[in-house]
Structure formats: C-alpha cells, structure tokens
C-alpha cells in the first residue's frame, strides 16, 4: 500500500494511508492524476500544504482516520447495529467539535483547502450552531464583526427583521 | 412536540426545551437531548418523568407510546460510576437475552458491553488535547498550581486559564507568576492574584506592542478572569470550579475535560475580543475571524443557519446583510419550513422570498397564538346545564306543569290571558 506524506507549512510530516487520504478530494484527485500519467508507484508521495499549520493538519487527519474506521465498521456490522453506530459517530463528532472558535476557523479553512466534504459540513454546522440563538450584538462580539452600517440603515434592517428578533 | 428538560446537578440546572416530531422515536429523542447537552454524550444518563421511575425503551419505540406528551418535564439523571457499572452489567445480560433489541441510555454502556463489534472511543481524544493536558500537568507541577498551593479544582482551572492565555498569542513580560502568587498568598491566604502583563506578539516590529493586562484570581471555588485594555476598558468573566471539584473525585478525565472546556470559554469570550481590539488599535491585520474567511465558506455557514439566525446575522454588518438576503437561501428556507404552502408565492411574484418567508412566519405565529388562547379560554357553552341558580325563564306557549297554577304577574296582557287575566280577577 502506498503511503502519502502531507507536509504542513512548518515542515512537519504526517504519513497517512491512501484509504484515509481518499477522503481529502484534493489529495485523491492528485493521486489519480499521478496514477494516470505514471502508472503504479510505490514511493511515498509528498504533498506540501503551504497554508495549513501543523496542529490543524493533525486534527484534520484525525478526522479522516476516524471516519475511515467508522466507514469500515458501518459496512462490516449488521443492520441491527447501524443505529448504534450512528449514535457513536455523532457522539464522537460532537466531542471532536469541542474546539475554540479560533481553531474552528483554521479547521474550516483547512477542510476547504483539502476539500474534505464531511469535515466542511461538520465545521459549518458547528459554526452555525454558535451563531444560533444569539442577539446581533452578541454575534458581533463573538465573531469580531465591525458594525459597518449607519444607524438609520441598521434600524431599517432591524425593522424588516423584527419577526425573527424576539 | 415540545418537552422541557431538567437535571438534578447544577451543570444541567437550568431547564431547556427540546423540540421533536410528534412521531419521533426514542432514539431521536436521545439524539436531540445529546445535541442540547453535549456533555451527556460521554456519560450514561436516564430519563424519567417523575425523577424516580427511569424510562427504558428500545431505539425504535415511539415516544408517545411511553406516555410522554408535549409539554412534559423530563428529568435527566446522570448515573454515578457505580450505578453505571451495575446497569452496564444488566445491559450486557439484556443484550445476551435479546440480541436484536437495543437498550438506549448512553453509548458508554454499549461500549462497556462485551461481545459486541464496537470502536473504543476512549483513545480517540484529539492529539492536541492530550498534548495540552500534558502541558497543563507540567505547568501545574512546575509553576502555577504547586507554588500557589491552590486547592485542587480551582488550581487546575487556573492552570488551564494560564495555559490558554499563553497559547493565544499573549505572553507575559514582567512579574513572574510565581513571585506574584507568593506575594499575594502571604497577604491573603485564600486569594491568589496572578498578573500577566501581556503584549501582543507581533512579527512586524517590536516597537508596536500593545499593552494589555490579564489577571485572574482564585476565589473559593471560582476563578475570576479580567482583562484591561486601553481602548475597551475592563472585561471580566467568572468560571465556576465547584462542578470540577465534585467531578474530580469521580474521574480525572472528566475534570480535565472540564478544564479544557473552561479554557475554551476563556479563549472565546475573553481573549478573542481582546486580541481583536488590540489588533485594531495597533492597525495590525486582524486575526482570522468570520469576516476574513473566504466567501464560499461564509455562504456555506449561512446555508446551515435557521431563519432566525440568518435574520440576526443580517443585522450585524453590511457584508453579511447583503449575503444573508440572497434569494436562494430564503427560497430553500421557505421550502423547508413551509412545505405545505408551496403555492404561496403566486406565480407572477412581486415579493422577494424573504418577505414571503417573513409573512408566512408571522402568519404561523399568529395562528399558534390564537390556538393557545383558545385552549386557555375555552368557549362557554351557549346554554348552561343545570342546576340553575334561579328559575329558568318560562317561554310563552310551552307552559305547563305546576307553574301554571300559580298567579303569573309577568304573563299579563299581551300573552294569552290564562290566569292573571281580567276575567279571573273579576270573579
């Protein structure tokens, strides 16, 4: 089995299997292109990722490996245990998403860059979850948004959205 | 169906509402609960209606069949370690007896049950967290926790706070922590004040360093953190450690989890605004935030938001105001929220989907309010059923019985002159 080495922007290398790497669509397409042009190769493939930092890459790879393991379990287990398994997956994902907002930004950027659809879904969900149930002032404070509206505009928008604000 | 949740520990002390479908299964209910209380995902818990009799059901059972109906108060009881052991044994026995059936409460039981294809989730903690825990332990051993001689739980919490402050691009420049702590502890035995005179780490020039003081103090079972910056003034927050203390006796892992949760809170609610304020003061490029994310990700986030969240974020700033008023978003939301009213916006549409959604939403709220007021004040019956407080009025033409033998002063004149008539009186 061919190994793939992902190199973070500070030079740290992470080795993952092809199976786990196939969740990253960017890496998977790169791999396909290489195989189409050169044929089978046994050397490890080094992929430099200039805009992903080490700790974020670690976290993303943890997600890939874990999803891989869950997928294998899902196909192996009988139908009766599926509900169980989805419950476990959800619990794991919930724990995985217990990160600070800052980390979440980096994670979502990395997921976008590496094109991991499931992780992207999970991250955007988590972000939406953090916006949900907050007032505009709280959202502005939490996410560092600048109030760029003039007071009249803001009042108008407020009035048009009054149905949702209370 | 709307249920109220309440737990006996102070962590879940406040009641929350969970909304599920009317025909939801037991599993869906549990998922909804875990979504509300993420901390329950890793522990086993039972649900009960009266705080005594725990509800047991298989995953596919309908919630209604358990006697739960809308508006009920569900008690969440978190099992202590011994109870969960007992119950996991019982669970294993139940598993052997009926392998097809699944007992629902808490996945950790299923993890503990032998002879089952499963994943061991205990080792799946993210590596960063493990590293952080190791650092925390080191930190507590060398610097903060030990020298200050703090009690267990607040000490751990304070160590977590310290580590968070160091992680988040602040570094303390003067007054080592241990010195300050020893000075403070000589003055006040129960108070330890740390001062982190923190400067923003700026790669560009060492000259442009913004000063900011972050202090934290352990008071009893609480840790108070406050930050002072020249532009924003003072921001403060309080972290409770009493739950950590009670949990520490049970399992060290949970306490570690709690301290990382506290660290996350400090990071999100205190440190991030402070750093953003400092950056804008100094004219540096702001740290990564929702504003600086690429457009596609912003749109993805907005797509996952419910209508209210979308309306709220439209009020925050100009850019999001534009993004959140996109027609496709509101069309999607309309189709999802009001599937029965597909033909609501008539074909030659003059209104935007957004205003259609707002109108439909208001309409629905109005209807719900009417329904609720109807339930509260049920319509009075048109004719009260007896016993009557006074004699019912006698209608003309249907007289009869004993009433007719008595003189009828009211039935004089125009109504048939039966008894109170002139002829009768004259005799």
From TrEMBL, chain A:
<protein>
    <recommendedName>
        <fullName>SKP1-like protein</fullName>
    </recommendedName>
</protein>
<dbReference type="InterPro" id="IPR016072">
    <property type="entry name" value="Skp1_comp_dimer"/>
</dbReference>
<dbReference type="InterPro" id="IPR016897">
    <property type="entry name" value="SKP1"/>
</dbReference>
<comment type="pathway">
    <text>Protein modification; protein ubiquitination.</text>
</comment>
<dbReference type="InterPro" id="IPR016073">
    <property type="entry name" value="Skp1_comp_POZ"/>
</dbReference>
<keyword id="KW-0833">Ubl conjugation pathway</keyword>
<dbReference type="InterPro" id="IPR036296">
    <property type="entry name" value="SKP1-like_dim_sf"/>
</dbReference>
<dbReference type="GO" id="GO:0009867">
    <property type="term" value="P:jasmonic acid mediated signaling pathway"/>
</dbReference>
<comment type="subunit">
    <text>Part of a SCF (SKP1-cullin-F-box) protein ligase complex.</text>
</comment>
<dbReference type="Pfam" id="PF01466">
    <property type="entry name" value="Skp1"/>
</dbReference>
<comment type="similarity">
    <text>Belongs to the SKP1 family.</text>
</comment>
<feature type="domain" description="SKP1 component dimerisation">
    <location>
        <begin position="118"/>
        <end position="164"/>
    </location>
</feature>
<dbReference type="InterPro" id="IPR011333">
    <property type="entry name" value="SKP1/BTB/POZ_sf"/>
</dbReference>
<dbReference type="Pfam" id="PF03931">
    <property type="entry name" value="Skp1_POZ"/>
</dbReference>
<comment type="function">
    <text>Involved in ubiquitination and subsequent proteasomal degradation of target proteins. Together with CUL1, RBX1 and a F-box protein, it forms a SCF E3 ubiquitin ligase complex. The functional specificity of this complex depends on the type of F-box protein. In the SCF complex, it serves as an adapter that links the F-box protein to CUL1.</text>
</comment>
<dbReference type="GO" id="GO:0006511">
    <property type="term" value="P:ubiquitin-dependent protein catabolic process"/>
</dbReference>
<dbReference type="GO" id="GO:0016567">
    <property type="term" value="P:protein ubiquitination"/>
</dbReference>
<feature type="domain" description="SKP1 component POZ">
    <location>
        <begin position="3"/>
        <end position="67"/>
    </location>
</feature>
<dbReference type="InterPro" id="IPR001232">
    <property type="entry name" value="SKP1-like"/>
</dbReference>
UniProtKB/TrEMBL annotation, chain B:
<protein>
    <recommendedName>
        <fullName>F-box domain-containing protein</fullName>
    </recommendedName>
</protein>
<feature type="compositionally biased region" description="Low complexity">
    <location>
        <begin position="128"/>
        <end position="141"/>
    </location>
</feature>
<feature type="region of interest" description="Disordered">
    <location>
        <begin position="87"/>
        <end position="149"/>
    </location>
</feature>
<dbReference type="InterPro" id="IPR036047">
    <property type="entry name" value="F-box-like_dom_sf"/>
</dbReference>
<feature type="domain" description="F-box">
    <location>
        <begin position="287"/>
        <end position="333"/>
    </location>
</feature>
<dbReference type="InterPro" id="IPR001810">
    <property type="entry name" value="F-box_dom"/>
</dbReference>
<dbReference type="Pfam" id="PF12937">
    <property type="entry name" value="F-box-like"/>
</dbReference>
């Amino acid at each position: 089995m061919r190994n793939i080495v992902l190199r973070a922007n500070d030079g740290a290398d992470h080795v993952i299997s092809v199976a786990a790497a196939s969740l990253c669509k960017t890496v998977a397409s790169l791999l396909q292109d290489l195989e189409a042009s050169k044929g089978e190769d046994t050397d490890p493939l080094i992929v430099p990722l200039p805009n992903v930092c080490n700790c974020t890459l670690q976290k993303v790879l943890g997600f890939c490996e874990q999803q891989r393991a869950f997928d294998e379990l899902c196909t192996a287990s009988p139908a009766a245990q599926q509900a169980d398994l989805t419950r476990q997956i959800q619990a794991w994902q919930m724990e995985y998403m217990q990160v600070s907002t800052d980390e979440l930004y980096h994670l979502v950027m990395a997921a976008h860059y590496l094109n991991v659809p499931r992780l992207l879904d999970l991250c955007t969900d988590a972000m939406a979850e953090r916006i949900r149930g907050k007032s505009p002032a709280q959202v502005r404070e939490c996410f560092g948004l600048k109030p760029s509206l003039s007071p009249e505009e803001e009042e108008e928008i407020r009035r048009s959205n009054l149905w949702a604000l209370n | 169906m709307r249920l109220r949740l309440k737990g006996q520990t102070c962590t879940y002390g406040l009641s929350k509402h969970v909304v599920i479908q009317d025909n939801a299964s037991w599993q869906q209910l549990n998922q909804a609960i875990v979504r509300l209380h993420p901390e329950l995902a890793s522990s086993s818990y039972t649900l009960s209606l009266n705080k005594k009799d725990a509800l047991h059901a298989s995953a596919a059972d309908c919630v209604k069949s358990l006697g739960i109906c809308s508006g009920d108060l569900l008690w969440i009881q978190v099992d202590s370690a011994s109870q969960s052991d007992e119950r996991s044994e019982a669970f294993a026995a139940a598993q052997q007896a009926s392998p097809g059936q699944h007992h629902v409460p808490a996945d950790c039981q299923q993890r503990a049950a032998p002879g089952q294809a499963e994943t061991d989730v205990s080792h799946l903690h993210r590596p960063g967290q493990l590293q952080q825990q190791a650092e925390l332990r080191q930190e507590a051993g060398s610097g903060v926790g030990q020298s200050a001689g703090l009690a267990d739980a607040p000490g751990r919490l304070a160590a977590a706070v310290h580590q968070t402050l160091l992680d988040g691009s602040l570094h303390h420049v003067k007054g080592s922590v241990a010195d300050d702590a020893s000075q403070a502890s000589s003055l006040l035995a129960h108070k330890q004040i740390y001062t982190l005179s923190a400067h923003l780490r700026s790669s560009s020039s060492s000259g442009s360093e913004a000063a900011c003081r972050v202090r934290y103090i352990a008071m009893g079972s609480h840790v108070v953190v406050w930050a002072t910056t020249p532009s924003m003034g003072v921001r403060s927050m309080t972290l409770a450690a009493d739950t950590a203390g009670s949990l520490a006796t049970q399992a060290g892992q949970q306490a570690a989890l709690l301290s990382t949760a506290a660290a996350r809170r400090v990071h999100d609610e205190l440190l991030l605004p402070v750093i953003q304020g400092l950056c804008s003061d100094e004219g540096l490029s702001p740290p990564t935030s929702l504003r600086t994310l690429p457009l596609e990700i912003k749109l993805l986030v907005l797509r996952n938001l419910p209508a209210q969240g979308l309306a709220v974020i439209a009020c925050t700033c100009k850019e999001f105001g534009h993004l959140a008023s996109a027609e496709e978003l509101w069309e999607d939301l309309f189709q999802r929220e009001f599937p029965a009213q597909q033909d609501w916006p008539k074909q030659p549409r003059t209104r935007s989907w957004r205003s259609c959604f707002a109108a439909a939403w208001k309409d629905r709220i109005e209807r719900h309010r009417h329904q609720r007021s109807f339930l509260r004040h049920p319509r009075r019956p048109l004719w009260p059923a007896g016993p009557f407080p006074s004699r019912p009025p006698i209608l003309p033409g249907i007289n009869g019985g004993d009433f007719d033998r008595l003189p009828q002063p009211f039935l004089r004149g125009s109504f048939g002159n039966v008894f109170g008539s002139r002829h009768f009186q004259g005799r």
